[in-house]
Recover the amino acids of this structure.
């Protein structure tokens, strides 16, 4: 599973503050994978699939 993250820090003109902007992609190639195969008695034998391709935007203000 491949993930990607891009970030950029923008310096703000007052009091040494910064703004961080980011873009993240989880499961970049949209691969199907399982966290477990449903074996054992914990979880009642149900398999759990991983997250599909997902996109996230984020911002963080450092003050």
């Amino acid at each position: 599973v491949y993930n990607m993250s891009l970030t950029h820090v923008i310096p703000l003109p007052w009091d040494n503050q910064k703004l961080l902007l980011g873009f993240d992609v989880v499961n970049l190639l949209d691969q199907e994978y399982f966290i477990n195969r449903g074996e054992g008695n914990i979880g009642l034998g149900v398999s759990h699939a991983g997250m599909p391709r997902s996109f996230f935007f984020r911002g963080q203000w450092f003050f």
Remarks:
- The longest strand covers residues 18-26.
- The CA atoms of residues 2 and 35 lie 15 Å apart.
- Residues 4-62 form one domain.
